[in-house]
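> agent: user asked for a holo structure of the chain below bound to S-adenosylmethionine. Plan: (1) validate sequence alphabet, (2) canonicalize SMILES, (3) run complex prediction with ligand conditioning, (4) return tokens. Step 1... ok. Step 2... ok. Step 3 dispatched.
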Amino acid sequence: MNNSREKTLYLRVNKREAQELIDLISKLYPNNKMLNDRYKIMKGRNNIFFPLKINPNQIEHLKQQIKGKLHVKVVKKYGEKRKDYKYKTLEEALEGKIPEKYFDLIPKSYDIIGDIAIVEFNEIEQLGDNERIKKKISMAVIEVNKNVKTVYEKIGKVSGDYRTRELRFLMGFKKSETIHRENNCQFKLDIEKTFFTPRLINERRKISHLKIRKAETIVDLFAGVGPFSIQIAKLHKVKIYAFDKNPHAYEYMKENLQLNDIRGEIFPFNMDVADLINPHNKIGIKLKNKVNRVIMNLPEHALYFLNVACHLINPKGGIIHIYLFSEKPNTIKKAKKKFQEKIEGLNYYIDEISRAKIVKSYSPKSNMIIIDAFVRKNQTHLKGNFK
Ligand SMILES: C[S@@+](CC[C@H](N)C(=O)[O-])C[C@H]1O[C@@H](n2cnc3c(N)ncnc32)[C@H](O)[C@@H]1O
């Protein structure tokens, strides 16, 4: 994959003038490295060859500066890459490999889940020659990230009940299953069959490091492969009931319980949480009014399922961690208002909001918001502090 010999540009200089050339280059370009440290400097019988960064304007400028002073020539020859060299950016890895017009279109960021990278190329669609450029960029992703073995392209949006995304295999080992490590936990998952985003790493750290009382009963309504539940149970001796209707997510969640050392107990369920309010649903009956904390990580529909959370939560008080999408501007204010209206419609009220903040920008028009709220049922006879 990483050819150690390929043609590149060199500055050929007579041995006697080599030091003078280096002094001149460092004087002319003090902050901008002209020489390409990816390749070894080569020695001939009378000449030394300095590898150049491929930047036509800069090379032309250098030629003008040297003209008449030193006997120097720009030549193209086979160079030897330094074995210890590691590309730092995609731009660097792609230098000389794709036409310059594509450089602005190199993705600024991409997700890495385990050893799989997921890249979004929306802008490249505007130019021809897509497939070849996408493959080159994928190769660069592998070269820059030594742990990445496979590259996929995002095709569609996260959609459907299981919140999965259409992906297309591009480069590397053809596989969609991986093990992702996050906050000292491991998560086995299939990027095509289950939802997972590494972008919530800080949220999961934050929630799992909250002051959670021993023996709390917690419900993770949209648990996926288990990242919130497992990270909480790793640190706290609690009972967590973790639900997901996607059978693949449920199977991986069960495997992930085995992969991680946890202090608490997790009970996984493969079901639609809407069924929890069914008067004949056994687990719904068991948990009704008993739950101290509910995690709701389904931003598109979380408000719709607030009735389920209220059905489970202790009427004397409990905490809801709810993720919502909210339109810009004033996203936090709007999200709080929607949450308050909905919870009041369910005969509950907000005692305290301990956190309401933007988690990330979701689209040009909306943000993802987290609200951590302590809620109670509207019953005047329920007195006392249950926080
Ligand atoms: C946005 S993902 C979050 C997964 C997980 N919490 C995480 O952080 O990776 C939402 C999950 O909810 C599940 N889901 C959607 N609707 C559901 C429902 N009605 N009942 C149970 N699970 C549901 C989906 O299958 C998906 O795994």
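> agent: step 4 complete. Summary for user: The chain has three domains: 5-80, 90-175, 184-377. The first strand starts at residue 5 and ends at 14.
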